[in-house]
Amino acid sequence: MESVAVKGEGLSLGYLKGKQRKVILEQLNFELKTKELTCLLGPNGVGKSTLVKAMMGQLIPFEGKLELKKKNVSEYAHDSRAKMLSVVLSEPHLPGNLTVEQLVSLGRTPYLKWYGALDTSDKAAVNRALEITQVDYIRKELVNEISDGQRQKVLIARALAQDSPVMILDEPTAHLDLINRYEIMRLLQEIAHAESKAILVVTHDLEIALESADQFWLLSCGLPLITGKPEDLVISGQINQLYPSDRYEFDLLRGRVRLREESSNLEIIGDQDLTFWVKKALLKAGFQQLDGPVLIQSNPILLRYQELEFSRLDKLIDFLRKN
Ligand SMILES: Nc1ncnc2c1ncn2[C@@H]1O[C@H](COP(=O)(O)OP(=O)(O)OP(=O)(O)O)[C@@H](O)[C@H]1O
């Protein structure tokens, strides 16, 4: 099986204002691969949706090549492109009077005959999509009467029913709680691997993306697109290009962004994970320096400072403020 599903080469994308070109992205090179979950990350306004629009055939590149399964994206007729690429947008307008099953069935639209009814293979594709995404049990519920997390799974089911080798999702975890964010990304990773799909997810959710993505594409203003395994980009420090400001940095140990640590002379002794949180609380409370070390004893937690013992950080901080 050809592993490159979408390929961009020397792509320049943007919008026309009259006859004037407003270039948003230049010299983009990438390969979206089958059996991989790729996350596209970048700050607001950098051009992520612009790239997605181009992949959907809604935006003709100013320059360069954009191929979907080795054929120029703009050469596809609407229906044949829909068989190749499905899209889940972040804020879709859904007809609320449809049931989950009816909405997922809409994924079969590109395959329907002129009389518009689902045949046995369409029904099988819908059932399979409902099962894979585990929303079978709400198939008769109305779309506007289910939770945000369920709705997101239903939209993924509709894209699955469309049976295209490429799936693109724009912020599928927006508005979801932490567990559901993990759930959705884990589901997408499983689908990419088990169903042999090339999946591109646009997201701002770096922590969750790090847990689930096989590839990262990092877009930052005025720089070339960086692609690679998330862990490689972390190890090489390229991940920091997402945060151009000096105030932020990627915390290698904890796998997330943090405010660059203020320089401090705090001496905190104890288990490494615990010292991290004690230091964080002291810095937040405005203490960059103390008159001696803070010793942390675990099980039960006890903080020792100047021969005094504190069972909680707020008690230690209260003491420091008063003295
Ligand atoms: N239809 C349009 N016409 C002209 N300029 C546009 C149009 N749509 C978007 N832009 C511009 O293109 C740039 C990139 O926008 P885009 O929506 O692709 O960013 P994004 O990375 O998806 O942002 P976000 O994370 O906020 O969704 C922005 O400067 C925006 O103003």
SSE diagram, text form:
Layout: E1 4-17, E2 20-33, E3 36-41, H1 48-55, E4 63-68, E5 71-72, H2 78-84, E6 85-88, H3 100-105, H4 120-132, H5 148-161, E7 166-170, H6 178-194, E8 198-202, H7 206-212, E9 215-218, E10 226-228, H8 230-236, E11 248-251, E12 256-259, E13 268-269, H9 272-284, E14 294-297, E15 302-305, E16 308-310, H10 313-322
Parallel strand pairs: 3-8, 3-9, 6-7, 7-8, 13-14
Antiparallel strand pairs: 1-2, 1-4, 4-5, 9-10, 11-12, 14-15, 15-16
Helix pairs in contact: 4-5, 5-6, 6-7
This protein binds adenosine-5'-triphosphate.
Adenosine-5'-triphosphate (ATP) is lined by residues 15, 22, 24, 42, 44-50.
Keywords: ATP-binding, Nucleotide-binding, Transport
GO molecular function: ATP binding; ATP hydrolysis activity
InterPro entries: AAA+_ATPase (IPR003593), ABC_transporter-like_ATP-bd (IPR003439), Metal_Ion_Import_ABC (IPR050153), P-loop_NTPase (IPR027417)
How would you describe the overall organization of this protein?
The structure is a single chain. This protein is globular. Helix 4 (120-132) packs antiparallel against helix 5, helix 5 (148-161) packs parallel to helix 6 (178-194) and helix 6 packs parallel to helix 7 (206-212). The strands form four sheets. It has a six-stranded mixed β-sheet, with helices on both faces. It has a four-stranded antiparallel β-sheet with strand order 2-1-4-5, with helices on one face. The protein has two domains: 4-246, Rossmann fold (3-Layer(aba) Sandwich); 268-322, no CATH class. The chain has ten helices and 16 strands. By secondary structure, the chain is an alpha/beta fold. Helix content is 32%, strand content 26%. It has helices spanning 48-55, 78-84, 100-105, 120-132, 148-161, 178-194, 206-212, 230-236, 272-284, 313-322, and strands at 4-17, 20-33, 36-41, 63-68, 71-72, 85-88, 166-170, 198-202, 215-218, 226-228, 248-251, 256-259, 268-269, 294-297, 302-305, 308-310. The chain binds adenosine-5'-triphosphate. It comes from Algoriphagus hitonicola.
